[in-house]
Write a structure and sequence with these properties.
This protein is of the alpha+beta class and about 80 residues long. The protein is built from two helices and four strands; from the N terminus they run ααββββ.
Amino acid sequence: MITEDGNEHKDLLAAKVTAEQAAKAAVAAHPGQVWTVEWDSDDDGRAASWHVEVRGSDGRTWDASVDAATGKVTE
């Protein structure tokens, strides 16, 4: 999100949950290997979150959203 003052990472800098913590939370919810962790601060009215892609040992992919304030995992 780019604001008028040029601070495009305001939400990211304010996040209480780091990318590493989000990855750990996602793997705890769905065992496997983390493939990607991306910041998601879309302007769709939802709270900022981490998008984590986890691949299980069976080769299936699981996409998780991890709340940047609470660390709660949702699918």
